[in-house]
Specification:
single chain, 410 residues, alpha+beta, binds protoporphyrin IX containing FE, Cyt_P450_B, Cytochrome P450, steroid hydroxylase activity, iron, heme binding
Length: 410
């Protein structure tokens, strides 16, 4: 444990997570908190889960609620003035049952195993096209893996899923990056104007896409959602339709990009892993799970207790905010031997990185498939690939990943 953290209490450690040092390396701070237990009361109204079992139980506990419009009303009554926040609260990630159950059932049609499996061919094709481009760009010097590959693959795949044509994908990526600011919630209200403008542009685009799919349905998620919207009975309102389409775009974009960035960085720093990714069939599966465990792109999520909720032998009092530190749970020594060691040969396990329970990541099979396909192909295509400069990390705590990663393709 670094010297500075030795004397800290849990309250200081939680506050330090958003300091520059904490954002750079939050893992020692999770250990400081864990020294006080797997579920820790930090101050009145705030608890944190840092143990694997405690995080898992909290994610599955239906009496703990996700932040929704009602909770925004209490902390930031002006939230409705922001179209980006309105769109998120119209999506399933910000809804509780029964709304969440209804929306998730409708939207999950779009993620049926058959539909996800049908994306295998497109993922392979997009991967190879992006590798051709990297080869061209890399002939003259280092290439930024994030800009040229990691951020492009997820957008291409989500576009395929939603039925967004290739010519619109550059714009789609830009709009997604701007709206993602709103995922930070109301921590920085000034920056929300950027997200709001982007959301207005995206809503107009989706309205148009929806009109085209209504006129001529295709085999994509947009068409499936339009059908759900138009079917009497289990309806999805126009705002919910747009909110959920926006969620798919922003929830699956940078998260997958961050996963790819970490996975490649670790492989290039440990040539034995790169060699096995290149040559050993099936190795990518455990490797991707271990990357998710070791460097989760989403470090934490949160819930609210609407009433007193018993959890892991304690009580979460009504009105308490519970921060579920997924990344801390993934390094719980009670669950994982040598948790700070990157070991792709661990016995099968489920990382907390994609959540659990009712809000378990809908895009989990898709992002896993993207990484499992892309990594071996990438390393086979460029067997001499090497790190060509210091990677630049996103300066945030919850979203953890690389913004810039120069590589030489060899
Ligand atoms: C490595 C990549 C990804 C990571 C780390 C990730 C992480 C997560 C996590 C932690 C949650 C649960 C949040 C909570 O319980 O509070 C979640 C939910 C969600 N994710 Fe992902 N995600 C990834 C990729 C994707 C992709 C590719 C898509 C879609 C194309 C997607 C769509 C969603 C949706 C729609 C939800 C909300 C589910 C619900 O509220 O019922 N995600 N994701």
């Amino acid at each position: 444990m670094p010297a500075g953290t030795r004397t800290m209490g849990p309250r200081e450690a939680v506050a330090a997570l958003v300091s520059p040092e904490g954002r750079r390396d939050p893992y020692p701070l999770y250990e400081v908190i864990r020294a006080h237990g797997g579920l820790v009361a930090v101050k009145p109204g705030l608890m944190v889960a840092v143990g694997y079992a405690e995080c898992d139980e909290a994610l599955r506990e239906t009496r703990l609620r996700v932040q929704d419009g009602e909770s925004y009303d209490q902390i930031y009554p002006a939230w409705r003035a922001h179209s980006s926040l309105r769109a998120y609260t119209d999506s399933m990630l910000y809804r509780n049952p029964p709304d969440h159950t209804r929306m998730r059932r409708l939207v999950s049609h779009g993620f049926a195993p058959r539909r996800v499996e049908a994306l295998r061919g497109p993922i392979e094709r997009v991967t190879d096209r992006l590798l051709d481009r990297m080869a061209e760009l890399g002939a003259d010097g280092p290439v930024d893996f994030i800009a040229e590959f990691a951020s492009r693959l997820p957008i291409a795949v989500i576009s395929e899923l939603l039925g967004v044509p290739e010519r619109d994908q550059a714009w789609f990526r830009d709009v997604a990056a701007r709206i993602t600011i709103a995922l930070e919630g109301i921590t920085n209200v000034d920056r929300l104007a950027v997200a709001d403008t982007a959301m207005d542009e995206l809503a107009a685009y989706f309205d148009d896409l929806v009109a085209r799919r209504r006129a001529a349905p295709a085999d994509d998620v947009a068409s499936a959602l339009v059908q759900a919207h138009d079917t009497e009975g289990e309806r999805l309102s126009r705002d919910e339709l747009i909110g959920n389409m926006m969620l798919m775009l922003t929830a699956g974009f940078e998260t997958t990009s961050f996963l790819l960035g970490h996975a490649l960085l670790i492989a290039l720093r440990t040539p034995a892993h790169a060699a096995r990714l290149r040559g050993e069939p099936g190795f990518a599966t455990g490797y991707v799970e271990e990357t998710l465990r070791f460097e989760p792109p989403v470090q934490a999520t949160s819930r609210w207790a609407g009433s007193d909720v018993p959890l892991a032998g304690q009580l979460v009092p009504a009105g308490t905010k519970l921060v579920i530190m997924l990344a801390a749970g993934n390094r719980d020594p009670r669950r994982f031997a040598h948790p700070d060691r990157f070991d792709p040969d661990r016995p099968p396990f489920v990382p907390l990185s994609l959540g659990a329970g009712g809000h378990f990541c809908l895009g989990a099979p898709l992002s896993r498939m993207e990484a499992r396909i892309a990594l071996p192909r990438l390393l086979r295509r460029f067997p001499d690939m090497a790190v060509a400069g210091e990677p630049v990390r996103r300066d945030t705590w919850i979203g953890r990943g690389l913004d810039l990663f120069p590589v030489a393709v060899g």
